[in-house]
Amino acid sequence: MIKALNFKLFRILLLFLPVINPVNTQAQYYAGGQSPGSLKWDQINSAYFQIIFPKGYENQANYLANILEYARVLDGKTLQNFPRKISVLLHNRTANSNAEVGWAPRRIEFFTQSPQDSYAQEWLQQLALHEYRHVVQLDKMNQGITKLLYVLFGQQITAGVYGLFVPWWFIEGDAVVTETALSRSGRGRQPLFEMEMRAQLLQKGAFSYDKAAHGSYKDFTTSHYHLGYYLVGYGRAKYGSELWRKALDNVAKYPFTITPFSNSLKKQTGLNKAEFYRSSLADLDSIWKEVDGKLEKTAFQNLTKSQSFIDYQNPIAVSKDQIIAFKDDYQSVSELVLLDSLGKEQQVSFLALHFKETLSSKNGVVCWAEYDFDPRWAYQSFTKIVTYSLKSKEKSVFSAQKRYFSPALNSDASKVVAAESSVNDEHGLAIIELLGGLKEKEFKTLSNDFFSYPNWSANDTKLVAVCLNDQGKSLVEFDIASGKYSYLLPFSAVDISKPIYWRDYILYQAAYTGISNIFALRLSDRQIYQITSSAFGAHSPQIWNGQLLYSEYTADGNQIALSGIDSMDWKPMLEAENSSFPLAEILQKQEDTLLLNSAIPQKKYEIKKYSKIGHLINPHSWGPFSFSMDTYGFKPGATMSSQNKLSTLIMSLGYEYDLNFQEGTTFAEIAYLGWYPAIDARVDYGYHQRIAHDARADSNFILSYNETNLRTAVYVPLFFSSGTWSQRIQPRLEYSYKQLDVMNIGVELKKSNYQILSYSIQCSNFQKSAKQALFPKWGQQINFIYLQSPFDVSGSLFAFNSAFYFPGFSKHHGLRVYFAYQNRIGDADFYANQIVFSRGYIGLNFEEPISYKMDYKLPLAYPDFNIGSLLYLKRISLGLFYDETFERKTAGTNYRSVGNDLLFEVHFLRSFIPFELGLRSVYLLESKSPYFGFLGTIKI
Q: Is residue 431 within 8 Å of 413, Cβ to Cβ?
């Protein structure tokens, strides 16, 4: 959902590339990961949904089945499309909050952990409205030419047409519009969602369409969710909901027109995509300028005056002289920084994959939460609580394989309170002793409210937190000694977050005014006062030296602000004016309905076992070409692909035809990923003819033979993360067999079968990279491989590959040093080379080669330049290299080359797919001859 963009984009790309581009790619299938193999699964079958879930998650699965059956009709209304039954997989073992819709095979996947920054609607309801709208969009492709293509290609073509011809801003924007129009919450109603586009338009103006749609390495651009909400929503408000229904109809019926989406827009509005974008943003700019002119804004001191995008979040005092905050920008990785009252900055620590929602500091200690990944199972993760001593500069990590969020330190930094969620969605607050890691106390409400942003009172006797249930959001206060609690605010659909105690008040950020501002709740009489009046958004309140410390949003990110906190200047909340753009209300009137808790059915569904064995086979795509999971290659032929819904068994059966030799091969491939060691195998069989030489007769002849190949492998893909470093280790054992059966009478081969065992281990260690980086700043890759034929007298091969990454001479420059060694022992000519030789040379063969390469990369420019709709140029970079390969045992020629790669990162025809194209110039030092070639890759 909110954070699924990269996965979704990658998935769609993988699905449609086989259809449009028959060259090497990474895979025909998409499998984001697997749950632990020991999990047992159950299922619920309603009229239009198969809910597949881990045993123990029955109540939530039943609740979701009722929500989906109810939301299905609401979601399909404006597109006039109501899809057939679909499977929904629930993953409740992860710490991340996400969801995605896959289409080969067709399915929805929910990651059920509620996020700390959730708006005022239950997580499963949010997912149901948003993700099912994607199902409606995709299913809308099943008409016209695309429906006919489905008969030829299966589900992959549906995803292909959708991914190629529907803009990404529409895909996500339409889903955000739907969740907003059909609920009292939804992101379109949230000021924190609106502020990015609002700030950009009022402070920087509208970017070009291509820059807004495809991003920039130079300037911050809003996501497809933000951009899409305003384009889709504004289009519906001005032209009616049929505008987008007709656009999708046109894509499905006429994909061969290349720009069917834009053609439909042009026909209905007189504007193409780029013109529609400019018109919509011009109107939004006018509306927001008028609102901005009426605001009485709070005066504040800006501690951080950045000239480019730098985002400071969660500033908090660590002493009377310094504050600390999270910092993000495009030029470096996430970090923790100290700042003084003049804004002078000092780096404290680089950050791993952390939760940005909260940062706590007490008694010289800083605390935050990070992800704790399972090394094998992508769909199992936890959190760890990290503390950092500003005095000793030592970091401590507490990990109990639990899911603790938003940790906050007590006054002496001996304990934290954190929001906790179990795998079965049992929610509470936990007080944890940092020294021993023991859970001292836990607090829950009778209605199992979901908690976020907990904090301590000044004397450590009370706790305050945001709570969420089916009635919306409120603040809850617990007495630590007795465990009793009380709600401080009525539950509502207004988003509130980040409460702190101050005197007789609780300060918190809220969306009452249509712009995120900071408010004060007086505990004595529950009166609410507005403290700030921000242009775009004020949040994360803290107190520093008697002043209000907070984040103030700008078009260049959140800046750190200081303002007075005199209660005499506060405005009672009853006098606060709402400054939001009423687009959500217009959209809701078009729907003429809402997803209401009181209207959700209460049906009790039958729960049945979901057999993993019984659901291994799930054919989803086919086509008149062959695809190899083993080589990632495409050839004419025919392929049937299968992937089960748990993404543990992936199969491909087919026939491939080699145009060069005009002969065919039948093959079968399988990969099973559901055990701790993964297994894959391939078998193929084909009739071949080759020119052979008869040494006795000294003549050539046509050798006819049947060839059978078998390959099977066992490997363990492991992932580890520590601080800003991530490691991957994959040991692999592979057996391969080749049998040649000669059809020529009287002809015998010296050797007709080969059996090879391969032992390898791949290791990598990389530091987290900045967005503008071309290489990792620091990193290492090492690969050992040993090949042998233990069942005959053939020789063996040993190879070692390595790559080391270092910082360059300037920011974002990078150096990669490659070193490799290979040794053929005995009769080993039939083994393929396992190392890479010097660029520019072909046909090299060695017995014991050594190869090394040096690559230096640097960015030249970030043009953000487009030529109409033809292309958009995001980055120009240069790579310089030197290669050398030589034979270790005998003196001979050193094959050396030098050269450069001039690279351009571009988007063609306003497609979301980024390509890196370039020209390679190589000079071969031995032959003193130049070589030129074109380069092309897809940037993921």
A: no
